[in-house]
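Action item from last week, closing it out:
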Amino acid sequence: MSDMKINAEVRSAQGTGASRRLRRVGKVPGVVYGGQSEAEMIELDHKETLQQLKKEVFHSSILDMSLGGKSEKVLLRDYQMHPWRMEILHVDFQRVSAKEKITMRVPLHFTNEENAPSVKLGGGVVNRIESEVEVSCLPGVLPEYIEVDCGALEVGQSIHLSQLNLPDGVESAHLARGGEDLGVVAIQKARGPVADDPSGDSEGGEEAASEESEDKGESSEA
């Protein structure tokens, strides 16, 4: 689990107008909720938050939030971006307890894709079906990512949720809810070049083009 930090300040002013004023001075309005405390309106530095959002680990880790002179463990739960500007409009964080399980989407890191014999020698193509999976665990064992080794896959084979190598104490939230054992990656046979049509359609196309040319010639003579 990565030690990611984010700095925030308590926000007193609320409402659309107050949020606009914050953004004009380089701040991001947000909220932190959950746990034993009431929800708090917060503000964050826009530049710092934008840089953090660019990191994959920031989206799937327990974060140390410095707020009001104390540190809280939180998760990034949601954020809104401006439709076309690189501007964060709002950020939501959730407090976490070390003793309570959390549900979180964690990225998948695929390894040995190009080195798999089925790809390197067998002409197979890797099909990534999922890029992340939802897991359930205590905050202390939340993985930054889950590695998926494709090295032993043959053409036509796939890896499913139940086959993922999850750390101790971590389970698939989807399977725990009784969901289907979905595939996350598969090796498919590469498509070959399209062969010439033996039906002679190309010849028929040439004849049609010739007839169209003759028709145009007759029209112009008329």
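Closing note: Residues 202-222 have pLDDT under 50 and may be disordered.
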